[in-house]
Design goal:
- The two termini are about 25 Å apart.
- The longest helix has 18 residues.
- Helix 7 packs across helix 8.
- A six-stranded mixed β-sheet has the order 6-7-8-3-9-10, with helices on both faces. A four-stranded antiparallel β-sheet has the order 2-1-4-5, with helices on one face.
- It is about 35% helix and about 20% strand.
- The chain has about 280 residues and is α/β, with parallel strands linked by helices.
Length: about 280
């Protein structure tokens, strides 16, 4: 069983939720097609359920529909068939309860770091109405969040003055500043070097342990998936179908040394085999 950092107490595993409890995300027979009737079928008959507060990773070969799954969940693209239910309601359009971070940080170059982080508060209805009157309060929250991810002192820097890793930290803060119930991460570390990527794994894990949003992480990196997730879903080659659901039964907080332990390696290899064969376990 993987160990935790020296002197740290392992956190208890999450208790199993009642089987009849409504998940925060539920897809039943959901399909997504780009274009008209003869368009590209990205996902077909996708079925999954994600419980509130769970950190889930979605893995699979390139082009299998992993990012398309996030578009369904967030309401950025409608399902062609089947149902997509989030927080107890059918998804009919873009959801306000989502925060999103992508492979590229996509910070606005004319805004400072803190200005980029505050942007959602200026456009999300529930915050925009009071943003001007309470700007100091919101700025304090943004500074606290930036300090949490190691960006204290960089609040007034522009994106071109930040490293790639710093920009991704700021992007995470922007996605979290309005305390979303649901955080969607679309390969947010893929463009970073291995050392920065691993450093940000711990940033995400610590933020999740502190705030407990529901997180859906799309990634090609199986080490990343097993390191961060409670559950890993494997998607088949396009048209994507959900092949399997694997529970990651490892204690938290996880540390990089744990990735070299036999149990961690065994889980990673099993997931790789499922992706390679495209078959259910």
């Amino acid at each position: 069983m993987p160990s935790v950092a020296a002197g740290a107490e392992p956190r208890p595993r999450r208790k199993a939720l009642p089987a009849d409890r409504e998940p925060i995300i539920r897809l039943e027979g959901a399909s997504l097609v780009y274009g008209g009737p003869q368009g590209v079928v990205a996902l077909m008959d996708a079925n999954l359920r994600i419980d509130a507060g769970e950190l889930v990773a979605v893995v699979g070969p390139s082009g299998c529909g992993k990012s398309s799954l996030l578009k369904l969940v967030s309401g950025l693209h409608p399902a062609r068939s089947g149902s997509v239910v989030v927080a107890g309601r059918p998804v009919t359009g873009p959801l306000k309860i989502c925060g999103m971070a992508f492979q590229n940080a996509m910070l606005l170059p004319w805004r400072t770091t803190i200005g980029n982080v505050l942007l959602p508060l200026e456009i999300v209805d529930s915050h925009a109405a009071r943003f001007r009157r309470h700007r100091a309060e919101y700025e304090a929250q943004a500074r606290e969040l930036l300090a949490t991810v190691g960006l204290a002192g960089f609040e007034d820097k522009y994106p071109w003055q930040l490293s790639g890793g710093m920009q991704q930290r700021a992007s995470l803060c922007r996605a979290l500043i309005h305390s979303p119930e649901l955080l969607l991460l679309d390969e947010p570390f893929a463009s970073l070097d291995p050392f920065t990527r691993e450093e940000l794994w711990d940033v995400v894990q610590d933020l999740w342990l502190e705030r407990r949003p529901t997180v859906v992480l799309v990634t090609h990196d199986l080490r990343e998936a097993v390191y961060l997730a409670d559950t890993v879903y494997v998607i088949s080659p396009r048209p994507g179908r959900v092949l399997s659901r694997t529970t990651i039964d490892l204690p938290r907080p996880r540390r990089l040394a744990d990735t070299y332990k036999p149990q961690f390696i065994d889980v990673s290899h099993a997931l790789r085999e499922q992706i390679a064969t495209g078959a259910r376990p």
